[in-house]
Amino acid sequence: MRTRKRHLTILLAAAYMTAMLAGCGASGGRNTDTGTAHIGIIFTQAGLGGNSFNDLALEGVRRAEAELGITYDQVEPKSVADEEIIQDEMASSGEYDLIICVGDEQVDALNNVASVYTNQRFALLDAASQLDNVASYSCKAQEGCFMVGALAVLAKQEQIDSRLSPGGTVGFIGGVNNPLINQFAAGFKAGAACVDPDITVLTDYVGGFNDPTTARTIANTFYEKGADVIFHASGASGMGLFQAAEEKGFVSIGVNLNQNTIAPDYIMASMLKRLDNCAYHAIASVVEGAYTGENQLLGLSDGGVDFTVEGSNVQVPDAVLQKLEEIRMRVIEGEIEVPGEL
Questions:
Q1: Which of 115, 200, 119, 106 is CA-nearest to residue 152?
Q2: Count of beta carbons in the 10 Å neighbourhood of residue 136
Q3: Which of 64, 88, 109, 152 counts the highest number of beta carbons within 10 A?
Q4: Which domains does the chain have, with CATH numbers?
Q5: In this structure, are residues 25 and 4 in contact, taking their beta carbons and an 8 Å threshold?
Q6: Are 32 and 67 in contact (CB under 8 A)?
Q7: Contacts of 209 (CB under 8 A, 6+ apart)
Q8: Could you read off the pLDDT of 230-248 as tens digits, one per residue?
């Protein structure tokens, strides 16, 4: 089978855009020689690198390449304004069996483009659209947060680290006070309460996703109030939490991606939103002829969310991990219903 992997660089100059493609293989949608699906993926303007959501989505596409034999093109827009232009260019080409768009910032553009190209199949990751030709994949963030909330309290109860007190206080730092971030907060609080109904969960909001100074101040305040395990859902602001953990000597929990290696002595675990699995699910639905333009929520049961201690130097004993697996199964089997709202 020929491998076609073209890396597109989009340059927007004045009133027009030039797409540059480099790689091997010819254009032309589905490979008529092999019947393999041809996929396009458009990342957010943040681009690849730095262990971002974009990198995670690309991992899912590469897995599909290896396991399902698909070929793909990838595009890194230089700005949000580029995204609609790129979507339109891909859709109008007729080359793609599926076009994947990553992130909430692409929703408005995608609704415009997908409304025009109604026969083109799209997938939207970590956001939702109501169009029939857009399959939306979102994660039940609250279920992953439930797991790290339970871990936070179990770690304190079992005294897995000398920096942890048996006292009943943990902390949550959100980026902004909105329904999406409160989904994280609700899951974390419920997970903590599942282990200890009397636990106190301190909660505060940074006011933005790129303000590590404020997050650091909040974390220091929480620590002074007895919270020696603090979880964040605050984007780049969370770097301030990790700085405070290192300065004060407490334990933190990362979010969305595996952030453990940022400060492995101070980050015990990370809650994961598995956009790689979402991307793979979307592609597999096309390959298997099961594509439907529906909003799909992936949770613990189907690999949409998880948590990891990999890469951390904070040792979580097997006994604690076993308890967490028991809690996971109770969620998957419906014995525990995790709230998505505070």
A1: 200
A2: 24
A3: 152
A4: 5-139 (3.40.50.2300), 141-273+305-332 (3.40.50.2300)
A5: yes
A6: no
A7: 175, 176, 234, 235, 236, 237
A8: 999 998 899 999 999 999 9
